[in-house]
Design goal:
This protein has about 180 residues and is of the alpha+beta class. It has two domains: about 80 residues, no CATH class; about 70 residues, no CATH class. It is built from six helices and five strands. The chain has a three-stranded antiparallel beta sheet.
């Protein structure tokens, strides 16, 4: 089954073409099929930045799930988030929200956590703040004392891992 490449405009000067390479898992390893009839998918810059076509997105997910891609991405992110104390801070913040009565439902907790992560990450971009293990061991804190900024190293390593895994299943070509 041939898959068409995906063109994604990153800026007005750079376009990336992604071509999923069909692979077949065999006892001896993976066999990559030829992509002679692959054609780019035309998209506007806005479409490329906001979403991938559903069928292409599903093919990416399937290819990542069929190998070790998703596990590798998850392992990298889990390690980096734990190493930066983000995971401990997140757990402490959720515990605080529930124990203080600020939130009583799962949806309330998720909404508060997402808002806090967005707020703290945006605030950290300006001053280079990093996460630390603040008050995780039973210290009393207010909700604003928990640092839930996404750690820069987790973002960098996560991006590197995602790129490496995508390169295993896609031909990525940059047109300048």
């Amino acid at each position: 089954m041939a898959r068409a490449p995906m063109r994604k405009a990153l800026s007005s000067h750079i376009t990336i073409t992604l071509t999923l390479t069909p692979t077949y898992n065999t006892p001896g390893g993976r066999i990559f099929a030829a992509m002679a009839d692959a054609k780019p998918i035309a998209m506007t810059t806005t479409q490329a930045q906001n979403t991938l076509p559903a069928d292409f997105r599903n093919e990416l997910y399937s290819a990542l799930l069929s190998g070790s891609g998703i596990r590798s991405i998850e392992q990298t992110l889990s390690h980096e988030l734990a190493a930066s104390s983000f995971t401990a801070n997140l757990k402490a913040y959720i515990t605080h929200l529930l124990r203080s009565g600020t939130c009583s439902t799962f949806n309330e907790v998720i909404a508060r956590v997402n808002d806090k992560i967005r707020h703290d990450t945006a605030a950290a971009k300006g001053d280079g703040a990093t996460n630390g293990a603040n008050g995780v061991n039973g210290h009393t804190k207010d909700a604003h004392d928990y640092d839930l900024a996404l750690p820069r190293k987790a973002v960098v390593e996560g991006t590197r891992t995602v790129t490496a895994e995508l390169e295993k299943i896609c031909d990525i070509t940059m047109d300048k």
